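agent> step 3/5: call structure_predict on target 'HAD family hydrolase' (Agromyces protaetiae).
agent> reason: downstream docking stage needs a structural representation; sequence fetched in step 2, passing through unchanged.
tool.input:
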Amino acid sequence: MDEVETDLRGLTSAEVAERVARGEANVSTDASSRSLWSILRANVFTLFNGIVITGFLLLFALGRWQDALFGLAAISNAIIGVVQEYRAKRALDKLALMYAPKARVVRDGVETEIAVSEVVLDDLLIVRSGDQVVADAQVLEATRLEADESLLTGESDPVDKDPGDRLLSGSLVVGGEGEARVVAVGDEAFAAKLTAEAKRFSLVSSELRSSINRILRWITWAIFPIMLIVINANIQAYGGWRAAIASGEWREAAVSSVAAVIAMIPLGLVLMTSIAFAIGAVKLGAHHVLIQELAAVEGLARVDVICLDKTGTLTTGEIRFDGAHELTDAPPAGVRQALAWYGADPSANATAKCLAEEYPDAAPEPVARIEFSSVRKWSAIAFDGAGGGAGGDGAPVGTWVLGAPEFVLAGRPHLSDDPQQEASEARALARAAELAATGRRTLLLAHSKAVLDAGAADDAVLPADLEPVVLLTFREAVRDDAADTLRYFAHEGVQVRVISGDNPLTVAAVAREVGLDAGEGFDARDLPIDLNELAQVLEEHHVFGRVTPTQKREMVQALKLSGHTVAMTGDGVNDALAIKDADLGIAMESGATATKAVARIVLLDGRFSHLPGVVAEGRRIIANIERVSMLFLSKTSYAISLALLFGVLLWEFPLLPRQLSVTDGLTIGIPAFLLALLPNSRRYVPGFLRRSLSFAIPTGIVVAIALAYVSGHARFLGEQDQAVRTASMVTLGLLGLWILVVLSRPFTWIKAGVVVAMYIGLALSLTIPIVVEFLELAMPGQDTLIDIAIAVVAGCILIEGIGFWHRRRFGSATSLTAAEQRRLEGREQHEVPGHDGRRTRPTS
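tool.output (status=ok):
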């Protein structure tokens, strides 16, 4: 007794200080494993940035700042990468399970509110209905205390908490009040352990990003030996190392070498991919979809299985009254008033409160009651008729019991000598089973003529002559946009798995309501442990109930093991680890903080109907980036081919860096930016890198051979260096623009306008005096002009043939027909987002 009294007085200030000094305060390790320094190191201190910056500084040191324009692309890449990953770090660092900013404790015998981080081991917590438990604690005293642990375990039913029971951090107090002693804080608490793994940094799976990284790795292996070959060739073109150093011509050789090396790095492709992701994220943000990592926009376009948590995703989480099913032809008087009292009871749970709207009748106060318990699964009230309150069907005299049918009928002494009561009970249970099989939550109202007295209420013993009166059914409110969204996924070939911690029958009923073929639902308690066997079950069944948080994660892993790209949606902390392991995690704004922090996409208004828009945006980005990647990789291909060809021939590289910057901008940079923003709804098809390289490599070789022919023959004809470079720039510009023509098909007015504008831009750069002077251009001779014409015509014919072959081989995955393109562009222009997130056509 003395120990309990000591506990109930709480800690003293001195005891709190001792625990803080020992590190026993409720402070968890919130930072992610990704430090700001590691982000900077990954995005700034890279091999390619080192090469680019070295070339940039070398040109400045040589006084050739005009040739250093390529440095701007490298700086832009680094800034975008750092900002993107720092945003992800901040989201992870803010990961916190606790919603409550304050905790209620007893210190020095006085109840006070403190910050959650100030709670220490052995603190006396005061918890009341509506509170979130901020640290693991052991209950000392409880008055009808119930905790909702669904965010942690997935089980939606409240759990009774009696003295000696454990309160888990992160659970919600949904009824009663109590006092509890803190037994675990910080990283040792249940919630912290559950989410610790979710806080680790990781990037969403992205084929675009991984393919580009693979290309960069290949170039990394090739660039140094090619760099040596190029430098040697340029030096030899000026008479060899000794002569070039003595004459100072090594400066020109260095500039040419920088041009050759920088041309091999597809800096613009990385930048364009980041920009396309960022623009997609901004567009989706306008429709209340928060993209926490830019590559997630691509991710959902690749998903072929989406796992949905029932509560908060398919349903709103609200309970709605469904109907009353009478079990007797002559119900006792006062049924409506008894139900009205249950609905109006201030301590009623969410299910009972649904009765208030359906039964608004007035009712007298009961003379005795037995509180609802999640263990008993029923509550009882008694009226003696003396309080008046007669209504349309009379006063509610006697004892009225409301609860789960099988528990209500098992909660009183069985009358084995009353066959009529046994038959009535059997009929009630059979009818309840029928209703439960439809997935509806079912409660039974039973009546006894005997009036429950206070003593019986204390002992929680029901009268023996209970008569089943009416079955009440309830449904979870299904989101009005869920069915349409699931139909969209079915049409697009995306499979759906519904996994929930609730009863399989309930989950199956909700799934059927939104149009899924659910059967009876699979009880997750029967799931195999082996992931391969689990994957087989997941192929055969689509709806699962009684799924634990660990099983949700294993189901995601099993689907990935069988080759699926998996998206996982949810709102509870119990979903966090599964969302973390999925290829793409999606959370609702109403969900737990932990879940939102590890998700890649958050639906800010909780509308499931936004997901088709995310899929469409992802498809647009993938299809368009694949198109523009062929432009960038063609450049890398001809840059490497030129470097090797001219290196072997010991020729000087035929272009200055500034000339390359202009041709790159006109043939690749500007059109790529515009093409990346066009509508495109092609379904995702694996093999992005193979398709891109199958066009870029042969095209690059054609361009390199054409440039070698023009440059080599011009030097043979005795053209000056400026004229040779001008001829090379014209040849490269015209062939690069023809690559743009091939990749822009089928033409629309927008794409045709872009191509024409680039041709005009090339013509202006060759004729405007100030530009000609800046680019150091000079008109070649007539024979060289003829060579340019021959090389361009032959090159265009070969590029056209490569394009024709590529469309025949891969066309279904990379292009739209002209009619489809025009129809899609028209829909983008004329459709507007509806208020509910759907797209609607404005009336004329």
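agent> step 4/5: record observation. The first strand starts at residue 102 and ends at 107.
agent> proceeding.
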